[in-house]
């Protein structure tokens, strides 16, 4: 078989993929090990900057929680690598494709079924980790408030939702790959972009309420303060909601979401319970900072540009036989995204769009992993900007104390490994974040 020979493009891809996967694993395990060592080493004492505010018990709980999560993450890394190799080089995806081919015959329906079956199987294979995380780790640290019934209900709902929204989208993309000519990826990009925008728009109003209840703020005194702030910042006053996060977890948070008239700031009830009026105002001001700086819109523009590049690349590699043979899918290709197969008459063509899409989605993260720190860097920059905005619109000291409460209540470690944090953290570590706020506070009181 010519495609298996040394130095063929196919062999080169296999080797590049295997090396990239090994490198990624090495980096992930190395970073996680650094994090575990760093947190364990600083477990015995609260860092000086927080000594007055955080009790030692809370600090040690945060350390133990971080270590417990790291253990699960390590297992998950190993399992993820096994699955990835299983799907690709060891022939899992090829076997699933051939099985469905024998059962359904070739066609668009078979390719959609392939994507659906893949999603279902890999979802099931990841499920034990999610259950363990919720009912063992979160439970042990007193965060879990979900029940097996609620958890299963969520699972069922999100699976049905993914099928209802995802299957038509996948079918449309696969159809475009087959029917829209060599520039299909441009059409698919238009569809994908439109879909993302639609999702951003309907998520807060139609999808999130399937899982949680969203109520307008009730407390009158608080409402007056936050309404004044929202007016100052030019944000529609009807856009503030309280979510019953306590149904599932004791973790507290707040976020900004949505597009156009659907945008809103959401406070978890668990957060509201823990903060005083000044702190709520400061946290809201931080979220409004994301809104004023257009962080969501900017992030989406970057995502759209990346997906355009990705789809163009997929458009090219999906036409190359070595893309399939190099990643564990049986060859015998003719090039219009089709392969002839033993069970078909000569000249018949087997659509392979679903195979191409899945292989691409499996393999690209192994290479794009190294862009993660860049994305984390820009995310942390956004957080600093939102903090600076909050410091100007509300009281910096109130935001600092709200953040400290959040760290303590969520058992987030105050002593992450610096390299680990640089690589992964979407939010700046506590020391840096509070440092900037204290500086803003000093400037304010000096003025
Ligand atoms: Zn933020």
UniProtKB/TrEMBL annotation:
Bilayer-spanning residue ranges: 12-33, 72-93, 113-137, 158-177, 183-203, 300-318, 350-371
Keyword Metal-binding among UniProt keywords: yes
Cofactor: Zn(2+)
UniProt signal peptide: none
Peptidase M48 domain span: 216-438
All copies of domain CAAX prenyl protease 1 N-terminal, residue ranges: 35-213
Keywords: Hydrolase, Membrane, Metal-binding, Metalloprotease, Protease, Transmembrane, Transmembrane helix, Zinc
PANTHER family on file: CAAX PRENYL PROTEASE 1
Protein name according to UniProt: M48 family metallopeptidase
Organism: Comamonas nitrativorans
